[in-house]
Automatic annotation (TrEMBL):
Molecular-function annotations in GO: ATP binding; metal ion binding; methionine-tRNA ligase activity
EC number: 6.1.1.10
Domain Methionyl/Leucyl tRNA synthetase: 3-397
Extent of the signal sequence: none
Gene encoding the protein: metG
Protein name: Methionine--tRNA ligase
Leading EC class: ligase
Function: Is required not only for elongation of protein synthesis but also for the initiation of all mRNA translation through initiator tRNA(fMet) aminoacylation.
Biological source species: Sulfolobus tengchongensis
One Gene Ontology cellular component annotation held by this UniProt entry: cytosol
Residue span(s) of domain Methionyl-tRNA synthetase anticodon-binding: 415-559
Cofactor mode of binding and number, as noted: Binds 1 zinc ion per subunit.
Length: 573
């Protein structure tokens, strides 16, 4: 089995905030780490990259009177540093849409869609003051569907509907705010209508696709897919490869989606294995996972599969598109201009990055919009991480040190009671349950299973009371309890690894079990640690957040922001 893991490509017009992070990249990283333990490192590839073309960058460049490439070079390097070096995201390839491999692939791929490409005149808004055509985000107005007054020319951020500029009510130029005129200009259209029935059949028959994705895709096809322009009149982007289209560029959404393929090609090119990318894109022994926000569902569940079908080359269609709802910040939408929220270069200054990883997965908005609050953050760290997980591990390992000098005691299978058998059964079943949920894109739900197991382990330890067993000399029962306990600790470490890799390794160091990245997920279901094995030094794993953390956080955040603003690239300030 080959497993392709992707995350939506971050657009480099701003630093991602915590909501962006959990919606795509962090979720994908957690799954990729799980998949490597489950299927083997050599069978998993995890890719993404900076989405750097299109109108927002061009608008910003015009305002700043600089070349768009200057801005995206700065932003790409900054985001890449944050993902790889600060958040330790385990990409196999984090690339960019300015990659020569990407640009070459996009042009070649689109030429293969020739029989589904139609040329037609389209009415495009034109700003007579700025002397520019205004596609996509160059133009804003009121959404005709929901009445949102700040809708863009390609999509409404409020209701998620895809738009065209001529649908907007009271359209205005994004640069100068003036009302544009509409001019006819020739464009190249991808005829989505040819794939209406095929998309409907594919999405309806999918066994693994989440219901929220199915619902959006089926809603689209029920309305009837229409041809959509794949060219634009803006200058910043990949030049269109079609004859007589020398003055056009490719619409950013069409080319960015193809980045999932070009990033895999580029990865294997760098390895000197230029044909091996096909193992992850062609054939039946593949499973692909796309981690995105819900506003990107139409592009991934309709436009991407339609393009793959249109190529007629047998590309593997998406298996699981895991789309999150929105993460709110203390009841409000994240807003850079209003300074509402926390951004990914600020968060590490407030708390350990891996605490953040755990918190964000625990708050992952899988079923509905979810509210991030500092109160809930404190509860998750102090109760779930410290009290439930950390305290249990410390108690088990400390008692093995105290009563058996750190050596795992013998296990007598013939003297187990129902409580022992319950935990042994949970050791066997919990990794399967967590893995099953992960593979449906339900990461938060998977952590619920993990914590359920941890709490049962704590209850088991309290019920068995090894300290009392030691006092009254019930040697066999004491040994069995601690033997089961230490093996449950190992299971917890493996379950925790995708979320908190370095802390999972700390548990493995305490267990003296080597490198956790060499483990196999399925082995978490076994009583793997044998009698006679000697554990390592026991340390305190987690620290509670102070009781005044919630009160002090805002002043801390303001001070951190002042320092961060000094080092952010020009584009991102």
């Amino acid at each position: 089995m080959k497993v392709l893991v992707t995350s939506a490509w971050p657009y480099v017009n701003s630093v991602p905030h915590l909501g962006n992070l959990i919606g795509s990249i962090l979720s994908a990283d957690v799954f990729a780490r799980y998949a490597r333990l489950k299927y083997g490192k050599e069978n998993v590839i995890f890719v993404s990259g900076s989405d750097e073309h299109g109108t927002p960058i061009e608008v910003e460049a015009i305002k700043r009177r600089v070349n768009p490439k200057e801005l995206t070079d700065q932003a790409h390097e900054y985001d890449k540093h944050l993902f790889l070096n600060v958040w330790k995201i385990s990409f196999d390839n984090y690339t960019r849409t300015e990659s020569e491999t990407h640009k070459k692939f996009v042009r070649e791929f689109l030429l293969k869609l020739d029989k589904y490409i139609k040329v037609s005149e389209d009415e495009i808004p034109f700003c007579e003051y700025d002397k520019l055509y205004l596609p996509d985000r160059f133009i804003k107005g009121t959404c005709p569907y929901c009445g949102f007054e700040d809708a863009r020319g390609d999509q409404c951020d409020n209701c998620g509907r895809l738009l065209t500029p001529n649908l907007l009510i009271n359209p205005k130029c994004s640069i100068c705010g003036r009302t544009p005129v509409f001019k006819k200009t020739k464009h190249w259209f991808f005829d989505l209508s040819e794939f209406n029935d095929k998309i409907k059949q594919w999405i309806s028959e999918s066994r693994d696709m989440p219901e929220n994705v199915k619902s959006v895709a089926l809603s689209w096809v029920s309305e009837g897919l229409k041809p959509r322009s794949i060219t634009r009149d803006n200058k910043w982007g990949i030049q269109a490869p079609f004859a007589e289209a020398e003055d056009k560029t490719i619409y950013v959404w069409f080319e960015a989606l193809l980045g999932y393929i070009s990033a895999v090609i580029e990865y294997f090119e760098k390895r000197g294995e230029p044909q091996n990318w096909k193992e992850f894109w062609f054939g039946n022994n593949i499973k692909s996972y796309y981690f995105i926000g819900k506003d990107n569902i139409p592009f991934h569940a309709v436009i991407l599969p339609a393009m793959l079908m249109a190529s007629e080359e047998g590309y593997h269609l998406p298996d699981v598109i895991a789309a999150t709802e929105y993460l709110l910040y203390e009841g409000q939408k994240f807003s850079k201009s209003r300074r509402i929220g926390v951004w990914i270069d600020e968060a590490p200054q407030l708390m350990d990055v891996e605490y953040w990883r755990f918190i964000l997965i625990r708050l992952r908005p899988e079923e509905k919009d979810t509210n991030f609050t500092w109160r809930e953050t404190v509860r998750i760290v102090n109760t779930e991480l410290n009290d439930d997980i950390g305290n249990y591990i410390n108690r088990v390992l400390s008692m093995i040190n105290r009563y058996y000098n750190g050596v795992i005691p013998e296990f007598n299978d013939n003297n187990t009671d129902d409580n022992d058998k319950k935990i042994i059964e949970m050791i066997k079943e919990t990794p399967k349950n967590v893995g099953s949920l992960f593979e449906k894109g339900k990461l938060k739900a998977g952590t619920e299973e993990m914590l359920k197991f941890v709490r049962e382990c704590n209850a088991y330890l309290n019920l068995k009371a090894p300290w009392n067993l030691y006092k009254i000399g019930k040697e066999i029962e004491l040994k069995n309890t601690l033997y089961i306990g230490v093996n449950s600790v190992r299971t917890i470490a493996i379950l925790l690894y995708p979320l908190m890799p370095s802390y999972a390794q700390k548990i493995y160091d305490m267990l003296n079990m080597g490198d956790i990245e060499n483990e196999k997920w399925d082995d978490a279901s076994k009583l793997y640690i044998k009698p006679g094995h000697k554990i390592g030094q026991v340390i305190t794993l987690f620290k509670k957040l102070p009781t005044d953390f919630e009160k002090e956080i805002q002043s801390k955040l303001e001070n951190i922001r002042k320092d961060i603003e000094k080092i952010r690239p020009t584009l991102l300030k």
